[in-house]
Amino acid sequence: NYGVLSTHDHELIEQFKLEVYPIYQQLADRATLDTVAKHISYVAKQNYTHPVGYFKKAAKDYLKRFIL
Question: What is the pLDDT of residue 2?
Fold first, then answer.
């Protein structure tokens, strides 16, 4: 297990790619990769039961800071 996801949980990894990655891509387009990396690092340290939903909400909330 490396951080947030097990490398063996292919279904969860695919779900992240489909649902979470596009939001972080939008964030990277408006901020910097360093900003995105720091946000992912912060979110990954939190306690959560459903990581996909937690990451989606956290990324969307953070993205709001960069949309005028």
Answer: 43
